[in-house]
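Components:
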Amino acid sequence: MINTLTEKIKKLEAPIVVGLDPTMKFVPEYMKKQAFAEYGETLKGAAEAILAYNKGIVDAVCDLIPAVKPQIAMYEQFGIEGLIAFQKTVAYCKEKGLVVIGDIKRGDIGSTSEAYAVAHLGQVQVGNTMCRGFEEDFATVNPYLGSDGVQPFIKVCKEEKKGIFVLVKTSNPSSGEFQDRLVLPKDSRDAAKARPLYEIVGEKVAQWAAECMGGEYSYIGAVVGATYPEMGKILRQIMPKSYILVPGYGAQGGSGKDLKPFFNEDGLGAIVNSSRGIIAAYQQEKYAKYGEENYADAARAAVLDMKEDIRTGIS
Amino acid sequence: MINTLTEKIKKLEAPIVVGLDPTMKFVPEYMKKQAFAEYGETLKGAAEAILAYNKGIVDAVCDLIPAVKPQIAMYEQFGIEGLIAFQKTVAYCKEKGLVVIGDIKRGDIGSTSEAYAVAHLGQVQVGNTMCRGFEEDFATVNPYLGSDGVQPFIKVCKEEKKGIFVLVKTSNPSSGEFQDRLVLPKDSRDAAKARPLYEIVGEKVAQWAAECMGGEYSYIGAVVGATYPEMGKILRQIMPKSYILVPGYGAQGGSGKDLKPFFNEDGLGAIVNSSRGIIAAYQQEKYAKYGEENYADAARAAVLDMKEDIRTGIS
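Structure:
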């Protein structure tokens, strides 16, 4: 799947992933009205509204981008109905030829991570039958529990030819609270050799990645926020064969010129996410002229602008 | 809810939580047959089997224990159907008067953590209506993203009088890979002052906890594995007002005598989880005499033994 992703990025000249992170505030009023008229102000009503909203966006941008990244929390908040909308969103995006990165940030002890890996990327045995729960192509994984918690994902990725992005340095303001703390080497008490935790995690990702090569790139990638380009530069060197999934572009503050450090010399190796900046573009002054009825056209215009901003920023 | 939990623990003299982490391997053959006959070897068939299995265990042990901890991954692996079984398990346990700790290990950037907090502990707004997705009393939270990722849970806990357990030192073998790494103080390069990451996270938990007192205890707790009693002792001191949720007892290797360091002088402050050791007790030699038909009686016997083992271990 990492090869498919790489080829798509090359072909479309767009290292872009659109974050399908719908909230009720983003969904145009007329779509909410329609869903509530049919299902009431219920979880089902909300789920139907976000699914319809997603489909509009996907239809409008699927020829421009290689991948989407639905954030499962935004669906999970609407309970079972929300998760059905998540599942349908995944299926719809795959129908449209998009690579789907499930932003699930799961991670647990070994046997439990195995269940998560199976849930999102693999197959679960029921009697003598193999079944599939959710069916993303990639998933994001939290490394706090160590190798135990990541290896089951790697195992399923090998079997299924899928991939993961491990959280290394996240885009949020307080990511440094633990991730930036300076860590001593295992075999030394020399404070001059202390390095931030995210580098230690990055090195582990590089080890895992080296054992999981697709073609040019590994199917074990990393998440590094656009909001920290200096750190991105170092992490790019530490994990040369890993794709870096870069959140934090746009609404969170990152811009095209911040992105160069995340890419390799070949112009590959990173894929930049924008969520709100695309899917709620129509709520920004810049794209207000589209109006909420044409929210999907606004999203398309925002993708084209983002593509250009990145092209200029990294060239 | 932390007061309810504390009172229940005192009344039942059982600082015990039963982990409802069903896998198909644990479910008795006759229950699987029954579910598959009705629903086939499908996700629905699996979900119905684990729900029936859970109900048997809950019925058998609910008068002995204050709380259960369903591990959501074990349900998520069966997709939507599995998550329906999770939801029904939560509801059933609450009907039976049990406190429900959702072992969800979620954690993300602020706005996303808010969605998770709402999904599991709070209410989501749909139009002018407030709706609830899943409805646990407590949830486990991953701290890797820092305060941003935890504060939204704390906010919802305040509103809903619920609580969280933050992962500090997990029970798995590789938990030390990142959690044990020695971290320099923020304001010093003195290697002699370096301390393990789990202590740094523990201190943060203690800060959050101090601002969120229920009665004697805070509703911000921590997860510290039974497999690391020495670290438990230090973390107990660092977080005096936090309940420690202790996984890793039983099947993962922890025993009653390892548990003392996790408790305060008042005999409170910790709640010990056992999953497989209870719910699949009938598969152990010690409880084999019960047979799979009486798997729930075996679970009850295992709870009683665990209660005694802890009583002896911590007294």
